[in-house]
């Protein structure tokens, strides 16, 4: 790719960034880093949601192979559903395989980092009580004492600005400060950094909103400050900076409630949550929907799959209901996938609610409780009238997941090539990094390097 191999690769994962944002002048610092010929549209895998895309970027494999087909997971054996809690031991992600190849590696704020073998790593891990109430902010880090040193210098990681109705640029600034400290202290050869700020405006307000355009400028300024730090570092001459984004946004105005449809069809059961609300009763439900932005995995008993399909087909905002052949077509034919997979129309998105009256919402519905809810809840970005977060799904202005809005891919820095193809498959990012760094790993990439 270049006359000289890069001695260091920095990956900036700027969520929600699109090529048009860079080329229209909204992100001048990123545009200055990445020359015209080194910019591309990034083709995300389906579903274009956080964990499936992150695993594809970091492994070079598709969801059908790495198995991360959603942000959530349904455990068929134990009849439980949860978000963000899948075991990470089976993954061979680039920062781990590069470490085995002899490089010093780092990664910040990707999903499922606890226990990673990266030399320097950080992910939020607050200390909670038995009811998931946060007792103290904390982060899991490698090495063990790294977070204590960061907290002494920058204060606790601002979790309240990382997600929820108070989400803002403060958490992104903290992550980039921590990344600077990692470079100063541990000098990683590969450093992968999650930059979340655009996600909030994209989800809350949508792709064409003024709020998103303003957020692009804020994120670009933060990235620009970090790039200035890199340029002053003695290793800048051997550095290749990879700018990626995981997905782009749609404007949406149609929330879809598949669990309500399944309940009306007599397939989903509820029970008293102990506080006067209706809790999902998974053991006695014959079908339920694990929602995830514009994609929903529907898990159903074998004898009611057709009934579930009938209940979901034709709902306003639903474009397709995929069966076995459809899952193969969309690249999610994996045991972790639902028996059916619903794809929203461009203006639609899926919400997990199964109750018909907000008075019957479960106790956690109005809280920011990402693990208790059996589905991703973007309404957590809005303050509620009766609790911390709203129950008004009509507030949500943006969504993603259909994989038909490209993200961004670009290469810049002294050790980066000056051109890339016009379109880049997300599966080529990991092999391209190994090529840049001139290392061999055992990972079975599905695509060659650029």
Automatic annotation (TrEMBL):
Q: Which top-rank group of organisms is this from? A: Archaea
- Which InterPro entries does UniProt cross-reference here? Alkaline_phosphatase_core_sf (IPR017850), Phosphodiest/P_Trfase (IPR002591)
Keyword Repeat set for record: no
Write one Pfam family the protein is assigned to: Phosphodiest
Protein keywords:
Isomerase
Residue numbers spanned by region Disordered: 57-77
Q: Does the keyword Cell membrane apply?
A: no
Name one molecular function that GO assigns to this entry: isomerase activity
Name-wise, this protein is Isopentenyl-diphosphate delta isomerase
């Amino acid at each position: 790719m270049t006359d000289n191999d890069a001695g260091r690769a920095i990956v900036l994962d700027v969520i929600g960034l699109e090529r048009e944002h860079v080329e229209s002048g909204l992100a001048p610092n990123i545009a200055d880093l990445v020359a015209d010929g080194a910019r591309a549209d990034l083709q995300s895998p389906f579903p274009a949601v956080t964990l499936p895309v992150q695993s594809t970027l970091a492994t070079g494999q598709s969801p059908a192979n790495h198995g991360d087909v959603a942000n959530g997971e349904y455990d068929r054996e134990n009849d439980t559903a949860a978000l963000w809690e899948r075991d990470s031991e089976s993954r061979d992600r680039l920062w781990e395989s590069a470490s085995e190849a002899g490089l010093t590696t780092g990664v910040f704020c990707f999903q499922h980092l606890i226990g990673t073998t990266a030399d320097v790593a950080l992910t939020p891990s607050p200390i909670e009580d038995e009811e998931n109430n946060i007792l103290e902010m904390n982060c899991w880090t490698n090495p063990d004492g790294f977070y204590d040193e960061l907290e002494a210098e920058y204060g606790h990681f601002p979790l309240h600005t990382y997600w929820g109705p108070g989400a803002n640029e403060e958490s992104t600034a903290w992550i980039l400060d921590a990344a600077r400290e990692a470079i100063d202290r541990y000098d990683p050869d590969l450093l992968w950094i999650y930059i979340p700020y655009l996600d909030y405006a994209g989800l809350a307000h949508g792709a064409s909103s003024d709020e998103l355009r303003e957020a692009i400028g804020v994120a670009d300024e933060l990235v620009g400050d970090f790039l200035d730090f890199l340029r002053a570092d003695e290793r800048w001459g051997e550095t290749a900076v990879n700018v990626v984004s995981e997905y782009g946004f749609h404007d949406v105005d149609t929330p879809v409630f598949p669990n309500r449809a399944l309940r009306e069809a007599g397939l989903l059961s509820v029970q008293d949550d102990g506080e006067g609300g209706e809790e999902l009763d998974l053991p006695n439900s014959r079908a339920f929907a694990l929602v995830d932005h514009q994609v929903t995995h529907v898990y159903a008993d074998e004898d009611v799959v057709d009934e579930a399909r009938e209940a979901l087909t034709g709902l306003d905002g639903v474009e397709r209901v995929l069966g076995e052949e459809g899952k193969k077509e969309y690249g999610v034919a994996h045991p972790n996938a639902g028996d059916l997979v619903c794809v929203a129309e461009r203006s639609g998105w899926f919400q997990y609610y199964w109750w018909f009256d907000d008075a019957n919402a479960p106790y956690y519905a109005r809280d920011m409780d990402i693990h208790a809810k059996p589905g991703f809840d973007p309404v957590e970005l809005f303050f509620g009238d009766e609790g911390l977060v709203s129950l008004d799904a009509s507030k949500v202005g943006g969504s993603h997941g259909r994989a038909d809005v490209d993200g961004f891919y670009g290469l810049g820095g002294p050790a980066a090539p000056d051109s890339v193809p016009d379109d880049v498959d997300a599966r080529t990012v990991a092999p391209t990094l190994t090529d840049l760094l001139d290392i061999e790993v055992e990972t079975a990439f599905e695509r060659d390097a650029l």
